[in-house]
Design brief:
Helix content: 10-25%
GO molecular function: peptidase activity
Number of helices: 9
Shape: elongated
Strand content: 25-35%
Protein name: M15 family metallopeptidase
Pfam families: Flg_new_2 (PF18998), VanY (PF02557)
CATH architecture of the largest domain: 2-Layer Sandwich
Structural class: alpha+beta
Largest sheet: 5 strands, mixed
InterPro entries: Bacterial_rp_domain (IPR044060), DD-CPase-like (IPR052179), VanY-like_core_dom (IPR003709), VanY/YodJ_core_dom (IPR058193), Zn_M74/Hedgehog-like (IPR009045)
CATH topology of the largest domain: Muramoyl-pentapeptide Carboxypeptidase, domain 2
Radius of gyration: 35 Å
Number of domains: 3
Bound molecules: zinc ion
């Protein structure tokens, strides 16, 4: 880059020559030839130039990972010293040559940070290094990806450093590959979704829900006793706050769920039915701890979002041990579309933790692998 006649030019560090200094050059020495100071490659380092008593003093400083090789003019190395002075006789270019001697290896973990990666840094060329991927609980490792290709499927990947590289450790949430199945429906933290299966589990401690709380008081709705006790407290507390909630669905047996699912398949087709309703054996309603709410007696589930009841539950349900099972933005994790009306009892402590950390049940369980073993009281059953 050339700025103007009779000025000393620098390519990356123009700032070192102040305006007054440049003007001084021009006034004092109009005949001084242009000198262009360059860096090659430009990312290799920073060059500076100064005019001192008829001489030009150039300085080169290598960037991280590069070393300075020498000053070159007209294809000849004129100095290997970083600071070099000479007396220019005519317009000329002097170039600081740099050489890269280290490569930067960067690592990223994909799929919502499904694991940890270790081993990134700067390395000498031709050095053999090993990078390590460590999937989090509930995730599987799919491989190391470089430039869109899988370069290794091993957690420990060793290779010889040839250049800068960005390696992606690809993790995938995979519940089936883990011992995530808590098929014991009696357990309040039992995981019930499309990857697990309750079979024909039926709770043995169901109690009837008070008719005042029901959308259809002429029908009988049931929940497990502990869940119901807390539902009742929650319902009364909401009422004291001026919010009336109606329960549109509670316990559904395996057979009832079969009917619901088949009706949905008939009405909307299997793909839609599978996203919006559960197959028998895969529904939280079969646990006897899940309830669906509507805002008024004629209310529909799909109209519940944003109602005072919906807002009240989002704020308070955890205090009574309930969580929204299928929150917005978690469809990939839960496998279900957003259901602001569907709440499930998981107990006070777990609900509190889920609420504070913004976790769904499966995410919460993945932070606590011990929950995936059968609790002691069930081992001998
Ligand atoms: Zn539901």
């Amino acid at each position: 880059m050339k700025l103007s006649k009779n000025m000393l030019l620098v390519n990356t560090s123009i700032i070192v020559l102040s305006i007054s200094l440049l003007l001084a050059f021009r006034l004092i020495d109009r005949s001084f030839p242009d000198v262009h100071v360059l860096a090659y490659p430009t990312v290799g380092g920073v060059v500076q130039g100064e005019q001192l008593e008829g001489q030009v003093v150039v300085t080169a400083e290598a960037n991280k990972g590069y070393r300075f090789l020498g000053w070159v003019q007209n294809g000849q190395v004129v100095s290997e010293k970083a600071t070099f002075s000479f007396k220019p006789s005519n317009e000329q270019t002097i170039t600081a040559n740099f050489q890269k001697y280290m490569a930067e290896i960067k690592l990223v973990a994909s799929e919502n940070l499904g694991g940890q990666v270790y081993g990134e840094g700067e390395f000498d060329f031709d050095e053999e290094i090993t990078v390590i991927a460590e999937p989090k609980f509930g995730y599987v490792f799919e491989g190391w990806i470089k430039d869109g290709n899988i370069v290794s499927e091993h957690l420990d990947y060793s290779f010889v450093v040839k250049d800068d590289a960005l390696l992606e450790a690809r993790f995938k949430l995979d519940l089936k590959s883990q011992t995530l199945r808590i098929s014991d429906g009696d357990y309040f933290l039992a995981l019930v979704n499309k990857d697990t299966y309750l079979g024909r589990y039926a709770p043995t401690d169901l109690v009837s829900i008070n008719k005042d709380m029901l959308k259809y008081p002429q029908w009988r709705y049931e929940l497990r006793e502990e869940a119901y006790t807390n539902l009742e407290k929650m319902w009364k507390s909401a009422k004291e706050d001026g919010v009336v909630l109606y329960i549109a669905s509670a316990y559904r047996s395996y057979d009832t769920q079969s009917q619901v699912f088949n009706e949905n398949v008939n009405r909307h087709g299997e793909i839609v039915a599978n996203r919006s309703s559960a197959r028998p054996g895969e529904s939280e309603h079969q646990l006897g701890t899940a309830v669906d709410f509507v805002a008024h007696k004629n209310g529909r589930l799909m109209d519940f979002e944003g109602t005072p009841g919906a807002l009240w539950l989002m704020e308070n349900a955890h205090k009574y041990g309930f969580i929204m099972s299928y929150p917005k933005g978690k469809e990939e994790i839960t496998g279900y579309i957003y259901e602001p009306w569907h709440y499930r009892y998981i107990g006070m402590d777990a609900a509190q933790e889920c609420k504070e950390a913004g976790l769904t049940l499966v995410e919460y369980l993945m932070t606590k692998p011990q929950f995936f073993e059968k609790p002691a009281e069930y081992v001998n059953n």
